[in-house]
Write a structure and sequence with these properties.
The complex is a heterodimer of chains A (674) and B (386). Chain A is 38% helix and 21% strand. With 674 residues, chain A is of the alpha+beta class. Chain A has three domains: 44-246, Penicillin-binding protein 2a (Domain 2); 250-295 and 322-330 and 509-649, Beta-lactamase, CATH 3.40.710; 332-422 and 433-501, no CATH class. In chain A, strands 2, 3, 4, 5, 10, 18 and 19 form a seven-stranded mixed beta sheet that branches. Chain A has a five-stranded antiparallel beta sheet with strand order 12-11-23-22-21, sandwiched between helices. A three-stranded antiparallel beta sheet of chain A has the order 1-8-9. In chain A, strand 21 and strand 22 (604-614) form a beta hairpin. In chain A, helix 14 crosses helix 17 (415-422) and helix 15 packs parallel to helix 22 (559-570). Chain B is mostly helical and 386 residues long. Chain B has one domain. In chain B, 67% of the residues lie in helices and 4% in strands. Chain B is built from 15 helices and three strands. A three-stranded antiparallel beta sheet of chain B has the order 1-2-3, with helices on one face. In chain B, strand 1 (108-111) and strand 2 (114-121) form a beta hairpin. In chain B, helix 3 (28-49) runs antiparallel to helix 4 and helix 7 (156-174) runs antiparallel to helix 8. Chain B is globular and about 60 Å long. The relative contact order of chain B is 0.15. The A-B interface holds A 1-2, 4-5, 7-9, 11-13, 15-16, 18-20, 22-24, 26-28, 30-35, 37-38, 41-43, 222-225, 230, 233 and B 51, 152, 191, 194-197, 250, 252-260, 269-270, 272-275, 289, 293-294, 297-298, 301-302, 304-305, 308-309, 312, 315-316, 321, 324, 328, 331-332, 335, 338-339, 342-343, 346-348.
């Protein structure tokens, strides 16, 4: 019996040692592992989105602001883990929210090649907002019965609001959920994004996204095994995004939108228009409008497939595309400021007189003045005011011959093309907007490149002709053209050079490029990258960053040469091609200068341009209006420009809308001191 | 004689606890260890139940009441001469058997899938299977204490009777079904037979028959599916971490995250979040692991070890076979139950519903454990009185 007690003794001691060793293993050796596991099971990291910064105009008026909304979101990963794939939860949710289960299912399905909106364009691993307009009642029903709605949350969040409606929609841009791709690519984003976080997809929202977004906070919430929050373990408060103050004036923007819309309505064929107002002294953007427009509010809370397709559709005029920076059009006579400058650099005397016949022979082909009318002997000044073409044809032809004609022996000087480049054409202005177009300068190199790209097709057509074209004479013409292009398409023909000098043919510019060029011409001769953003300001008021307007070039003109051209343009609105549009305009109060442009587009109505500046003595504003298929520059674009000046200077009895030149002060409570 | 007349004049209770009384010869180390376990248990029960409702102290108060009742029972049993118990052992055993029978009749109530309870009203309930352990300990000790003539081995008839009484009790507990308690009863009979000096071949035969029975149970599919599941989950907790493996996984996480010094009383996040099921009863050790860390949980293990070693010491010191057998069986019972309970929380034993002696929340089990301690003390007091 005693020996058996000893056995028991040993057993007990063994047992104690086994337990102690095991505890050592679990708590000391693997302690870290279990601490980690415990933190994972016990806490939920909740990203607290930072409130996105507002976008204000030059006087502190909101262009884009935030409004709070109750947002119901669904965590798809949690639903998938359920036995029925979350069907029961979605069904209950549809009852609460009053929207069909099918719709809810579609809204939480990630977008794919075959999955159309309303699908979820963001990351599938994040809570997906399915209702941005939930009522308090609906939210409470979800929150109070959390056990019936696992994976569903209702929170107060800030959503974007656009007080100006359509005004400046393309310039302001819009927000879309961050995609998984972006999350994967941008390391910093991964930690800093919650499921409802959005990124700026276009406009200044995209360019200044980094500043506007702020830094999201993190709340580590302790939860029990039912997922009920017990308390906050750790909290890092979100840092709200910076406010972007722009140089845009909301009033001027509205005036421009109205003028541009009006111009489009008056021109029966018009299919698009743009209006640009720059501050000539600073190079900042005062207004940037593109028609047709759209209300960016439709992006808030998931856009429907129908609306999305409408935004992209040709029929609706692609309202998403800003014609001011992306639209490329032949500039017509507005381009002559560049051609005059090229002539001066080529040695044509500034005070000389030049013949302006009704037509000029460029090689074997006659190039006519507008309506074939000869204007006799003119100074360059008058040539600009009356918009004579033949003077420029002649100069361009002469320079083309001087460069060596069709087959230059030495490197050509290409005076006209290079002057156009000096005016900033042919490359993006560098404005703080994404997706700007470069335009096109059709010089010898461009011709060669184009020929390299198209000669195969042209040569094939030269061989087989155009059997599908029913008009036989047209088919023959096209075949002849293809034949010529196939053989010598790489050559800059004299006609190309002549057309280029009056902004016709293959030359393309954007309305913003033209405005930027005119701003350089009528101010200090410096070419700038226009800026919409003026300053970034903390919500508390201190200025984080003033956004400078970079200088990107200098016009190769002396001050007196610039003054000469400016003086000539200053007469256009009173005595020249825009005199009709500005009839009765109080030139004694505000003298407006500018240049009309009427660019022919094959198969379409003319592009109507008016590039202007005012006041002529010391220009403050450069206003450019372009109406695609708008007809004559003097009859469609010029009246719209007139309307804009009337609005800015309050010439029609309404209060003037002169933009502020001093940065508005944001008080520490976020309000604007004017 | 002065002393004698003095003693006779005094009240019986005064005599029982007076300066000359045997009571002062109790095993103080055992007392302190048990008391410490009870105090720690109370804190742990408090910690694990305090979040049930805002400022909930209802359960911990009830636990303290249970401990108080248990302490009184323990004290009373201590004062009873254990040789008297020997005379009443069959009665105690029969009473507990009646309890077990009552449980399987409609009088019993099902809690947590086990039909093990008799409701007494007023929120109190008893679990006769806990008392069955006591009854069996006494019954076996009585049967095996009397050696056969001229040997120190029990008589064959007594061994057979012992096996019979154990099988009856185990059978009734199995009907509830309560696998854990059945195993404890099996350990008690095994311990009693070994300590009682049963010949080795008997023991080997018994061991063999247990193996055969186990294989039979397995092959004949007699176990409930959940019991099989628990066993598979024990072999590999990763099989179904949200299902049967959940308990083991969460239990390990809670204990492991305590690391060296623990997170402090009431500071355990896993405990507060109630991630471990049945935490105030079967999984009470996880609270110790998380909130008191390695030091705290080893302290609990050491205190249990002290109780067991003192029990063995008492068994060894006791002059009569009955006392030795009672003390030894109690050590087997408490030792097995402690090992299985802590073992399951740290993942070295399959999950069986056994409370941790002196620490887990419980009424009947607390009473039974403290009464068992009372037995040990009673034996200790009188071990050298002859």
């Amino acid at each position: 019996m005693r020996t058996r007690l000893v056995v028991l003794h040993v057993l007990v001691l063994t047992m104690l040692v086994v337990l102690a060793v095991r505890l050592w293993q679990v708590q000391i050796l693997r302690g870290d592992e279990f601490v980690h596991a415990a933190t994972e099971t016990r806490t939920r990291a909740v990203v607290v989105p930072a409130v996105r910064g507002q976008i204000l105009d030059a006087s502190g008026r909101p262009l884009v602001r935030n409004r709070t909304a109750l947002v119901v979101s669904v965590d798809r990963t949690e639903l998938i883990r359920m036995k029925d794939g979350g069907a029961a939860v979605l069904k209950r949710l549809s009852e609460v929210l009053g929207s069909p289960v099918k719709l809810l299912e579609r809204r939480i399905t990630p977008c794919g090649p075959k999955v159309t909106r309303p699908c979820w364009p963001g990351s599938p691993y994040q809570p997906i907002p399915i209702d941005l307009k939930a009522t308090t009642r609906e939210a409470l029903q979800i929150l109070e019965r959390q056990e019936e709605f696992p994976g569903v949350t209702a929170e107060v969040q800030a959503v974007r609001e656009y007080p100006g409606g359509k005004a400046g929609a393309q310039m302001l841009g819009y927000l879309q959920p961050v995609t998984q791709d972006e999350l994967d690519k941008r390391e910093g984003l991964k930690a800093g994004f919650s499921g409802v976080d959005l990124v700026g997809r276009d406009g200044v929202e995209a360019i200044y996204d980094h500043y506007l977004r702020g830094t999201p906070g993190l709340r580590r919430v302790q939860v029990d095994r039912m997922g009920k929050a017990l308390g906050v373990e750790k909290q890092v408060a979100p840092i709200p995004g910076d406010t972007l103050i722009t140089s845009v004036d909301a009033r001027v923007q509205n005036i421009v939108e109205k003028a541009v819309d009006g111009a489009m309505k008056k021109a029966p064929k018009a299919d698009g228009a743009a209006g640009v107002v720059l501050d000539a002294r600073t190079g900042r953007v005062v207004a940037l409008a593109s028609a047709p427009g759209y209300d960016p509010a439709i992006w808030t809370g998931g856009i429907s497939e129908k609306e999305y397709q409408r935004l992209l559709s040709e029929r609706a005029g692609k309202p998403l595309v800003s014609r001011a920076i992306k639209g490329e059009f032949a500039p017509g006579s507005t381009f002559k400021v560049s051609s005059v400058s090229a002539m001066l650099r080529a040695g044509y005397p500034i005070n000389g007189t030049y013949g302006c016949p009704g037509s000029f022979m460029v090689g074997s082909r006659a190039f006519n003045n507008f309506r074939g009318i000869g204007l006799g002997s003119l100074t360059l000044h008058t040539a600009l005011v009356k918009s004579c073409d033949t003077i420029f044809y002649k100069a361009a032809y002469e320079q083309w011959i001087k460069d060596g004609g069709l087959r230059p022996k030495k490197p050509p000087k290409e005076r006209f093309a290079n002057m156009a480049r000096a005016f900033g054409f042919g490359r993006p202005t560098g404005i703080d907007l994404p997706g700007e177009s470069a335009g096109r300068i059709p010089d010898r190199t461009w011709k060669k490149n184009l020929w390299a790209a198209t000669s195969a097709d042209n040569c094939r057509r030269a061989r087989i002709g155009y059997p599908e074209v029913t008009d036989r004479s047209r088919a023959a013409f096209l075949k002849q053209l293809a034949h010529e292009n196939c053989l010598e398409g790489y050559l800059l023909r004299p006609g190309d050079a002549a057309n280029f000098s009056i902004g016709q043919g293959d030359v393309l510019v954007t309305p913003l490029q033209l405005a930027s060029a005119y701003a350089a011409l009528v101010s200090d001769g410096k070419l700038r990258s226009p800026r919409i953003g003026w300053a970034l300001v903390r919500p508390g008021g201190q200025v984080v960053k003033r956004i400078d307007v970079p200088v990107r070039g200098k016009l190769p003109l002396s001050p007196s040469e610039r003054a000469y051209i400016k003086n000539a343009l200053s007469q256009v609105a009173s005595d020249g091609t825009a005199a009709g549009a500005f009839a009765g305009f109080p030139m004694d109060k505000v003298k407006v200068g500018g240049k009309t442009g009427t660019a022919e587009v094959w198969g379409k109505a003319d592009t109507s341009w008016f590039a202007s500046f005012a006041p002529t003595s010391k220009p403050r504003f450069v206003v450019v209006v372009m109406v695609s298929q708008g007809g004559m520059g003097g009859s469609t674009a010029a009246p719209a420009v007139r309307e804009i000046y009337e609005g800015i200077y309050g010439l029609k009895g309404q209060p003037p809308a002169i933009p502020d030149t001093k940065l508005p002060t944001i008080r520490s409570d976020g309000t604007v001191a004017r | 004689m002065m002393d004698r007349t003095l003693l006779e004049r005094r009240h019986p209770f005064a005599r029982a606890v007076g300066a000359q009384s045997n009571v002062w010869r109790i095993d103080w180390v055992l007392l302190v260890a048990v008391a410490a376990l009870c105090v720690i248990g109370t804190l742990l029960v408090w910690s694990s139940t305090r979040t049930w409702a805002a400022g909930s102290t209802g359960l911990v108060k009830k636990h303290m009441l249970n401990l108080a009742i248990g302490a009184v029972l323990c004290g009373l049993v201590t004062m009873v001469d254990h040789r008297l118990l020997r005379a009443y052992a069959p009665v105690v055993y029969l009473v507990t058997l009646i309890g077990l029978v009552l449980v399987v009749t409609p009088v019993g109530t099902t809690v947590n899938g086990s039909h093990s309870w008799i409701m007494l009203g007023g929120g109190f309930a008893i679990q006769p299977s806990e008392f069955a352990k006591l009854g069996l300990v006494l019954m076996l000790a009585m049967l095996l204490a009397q050696p056969a003539e001229g040997t120190d081995r029990p008589r064959v008839l007594d061994v057979v009777l012992s096996l019979l009484s154990a099988v009856v009790a185990m059978g009734l507990v199995m009907l509830q079904p309560d696998l854990g308690t059945t195993l404890v009863l099996a350990v008690i009979i095994a311990g009693a037979l070994i300590l009682g000096g049963v010949q080795k071949r008997w023991i080997l035969l018994l061991a063999f028959s247990v193996v055969v029975a186990a294989v039979a149970v397995w092959l004949l599919d007699l176990l409930e599916p959940y019991q099989v599941a628990r066993f598979t989950a024990f072999i590999d907790p990763g099989v179904d971490p949200r299902g049967v493996g959940y308990n083991s996984t969460q239990s390990l996480i809670a204990i492991g995250s305590g690391e060296l010094f623990g997170k402090g009383l009431f500071e355990g996040g896993q405990t507060t979040g109630r991630f471990v099921p049945e935490q105030h009863t079967d999984f009470i050790f996880t609270v110790a692991g998380e909130e008191f860390g390695f030091f705290g949980s080893v302290t609990v293990v050491v205190l249990l070890g002290v109780v067991l070693l003192r029990g063995l010491h008492i068994a060894k010191q006791c002059d009569d076979r009955f006392g030795t057998l009672v003390a030894g069986s109690i050590v087997c019972w408490l030792g097995f139950q402690s090992f299985v309970n802590i073992g399951m929380t740290v993942g070295i034993m399959p999950i069986t519903g056994l409370p941790l002696p002196f620490v887990s929340y419980g009424g009947t089990s607390t009473f039974a454990n403290l009464i068992a301690v009372g037995f040990l003390q009673a034996i200790r007091i009188r071990e050298q009185s002859f």
